[in-house]
Amino acid sequence: MPGSTNGSTKAMGVLTVGGLVVVTAYTVVLGGNGWLWFGWVVLGLLTLAMVVTQS
């Protein structure tokens, strides 16, 4: 059905947003860490790929 997402894509989206919150909080409290941001970008791209391939 167009416009609907399955459970794994929704879970991936929640994980990506949660990861953004965690990485941002870590950066604010302890300073930036490039590897954390790199990991979050990779996770975001994987989530985006899942959303695009569902269409």
Unreliable parts: none
Describe the sheet with the most strands. none
**Total E-strand runs:** 0
CA radius of gyration is: 13 Å
- Give the overall form: elongated
| Total count of helical runs of at least 4 residues | 2
Secondary structure category: mainly alpha
The fraction of residues in strands falls at under 5%
What's the helix-strand series? HH
Distance between the termini: 9 Å
Relative helix content: over 70%
Which whole number gives the mean pLDDT?
88
Report on the structure:
- With 55 residues, the protein is an all-alpha fold.
- The chain has two helices and no strands.
- The model has no long low-confidence stretch (mean pLDDT 88).
- The chain crosses the membrane at residues 12-29, 35-53.
- This is Integral membrane protein.
- Keywords: Membrane, Transmembrane, Transmembrane helix.
- It comes from Streptomyces filipinensis.
